[in-house]
Design a protein that fits this description.
The protein is α/β, with parallel strands linked by helices. The chain has a single domain, classed as Aldolase class I (TIM Barrel). It is built from eleven helices and nine strands.
Length: 321
């Protein structure tokens, strides 16, 4: 079998078991009171889980250990993670398992679309693991999923949160041609921390991807997100805001990094709710149409409500032009 490497040059066969990653142990700190969430117990939560299970689907809500799963699934909102549950990269912040993925499931796009219809979603977020093993990085699978949702649930707006498609010519164009309502790609952290936190990625390649998405389809909304608490400075966060605005990004999310385990990157500190509010105000002042900044903000958290506000903000912008 051919050896497959991630973008940082690591042999993926050696990364099948996350517990074997060569990363120093860092005790997981106690969360402050403002980050506590209730355990999911509602009937609607169970119904959402049953729909996901019945269609044989994977959600980032579960795989990444999202703290908002109880709230979102109680509202019958789920973020689908396509192309399997195994990522070809080993980012230091992420709880999704790393290794050599299996073959694509070509029936998955239709099952995702059926689940979207069954959940009666007004807005859906589709994300994926990194698939550096695929020639197009999984771009056509994204496009097929978007088209299947359009067929099964025509009134549902579709947001995609994609990998960077690093060194995959034509991949971005394939996704944008399927006309997602929102194209999202997360920068995750500041440039200085990429080698430590996101070693398989390149900051300016991700930034250029967002810029190109806007250039290809100026009508589509572009979105990006980052975490704080990894050792970045306030000034570095504001520089990322400037970089994203220069790339034409409409919507910014900022949330607190929460360490999944002792084998993941250590938390440098917990940013306070007041600090998040300040970042939100600064981001709006820099020209973003929509900003979500809070300790529990995640890319797909309340994405439907935020999309409605985003659309209203653009309409107001155009009316005032």
């Amino acid at each position: 079998m051919a050896v497959v490497f991630d973008q940082s040059g690591k042999d993926l066969r050696a990364l099948r078991h996350p517990e074997k990653r060569e990363r120093p142990l860092s005790p997981v700190p106690r969360k402050p009171d403002w980050i506590r969430v209730k355990a999911p117990t509602s009937r609607a939560f169970g119904q959402t889980r049953e729909i996901v299970r019945s269609h044989g689907l994977v959600t980032v809500c579960e795989e990444a250990g999202c703290p908002n799963i109880g709230e979102c699934w109680a509202k019958r909102h789920a973020t689908f993670m396509i192309m399997g549950d195994t990522c070809t990269r080993a980012c230091a912040f992420c709880d999704v398992k790393t290794g050599l993925p299996g073959a694509l499931d070509h029936g998955e796009p239709e099952r995702v679309a059926k689940a979207v219809a069954d959940l009666a979603l007004e807005h859906v977020v589709i994300t994926s693991v990194d698939r550096d093993d695929l020639e197009d990085g999984g771009a056509e699978h994204f496009a097929r999923t978007i088209r299947a949702i359009r067929e099964a649930a025509p009134s549902t707006t579709v947001e995609v949160l994609t990998p960077d498609f690093l060194r995959k010519p034509g991949a971005l164009e394939t996704v944008i041609a399927a006309k997602p309502d929102v194209f999202n790609h997360n920068l995750e952290t500041v440039p200085r921390l990429y080698l430590k936190i996101r070693p398989g990625a390149r900051y300016f390649a991700s930034l250029r991807l967002l810029q190109q998405a806007k250039e290809i389809d100026p009508q589509a909304f572009t979105k990006s997100g980052m975490m704080v608490g990894l050792g970045e400075t306030r000034e570095e966060v504001m520089q990322v805001m400037d970089d994203l605005r220069a790339a034409g990004v409409d919507f910014l999310t900022i949330g607190q990094y929460l360490q999944p385990s002792a084998r993941h990157a250590a938390i440098d500190r917990f940013w306070t709710p007041d600090e998040f509010k300040s970042l939100e105000q600064i981001a709006y002042a820099k020209g973003f149409l929509m900003v979500s900044a809070s300790p529990l903000t995640r890319s797909s958290y309340l994405a439907g409500d935020d999309f409605a506000r985003l659309r209203t903000a653009r309409q107001a912008q155009l009316a005032g032009a």
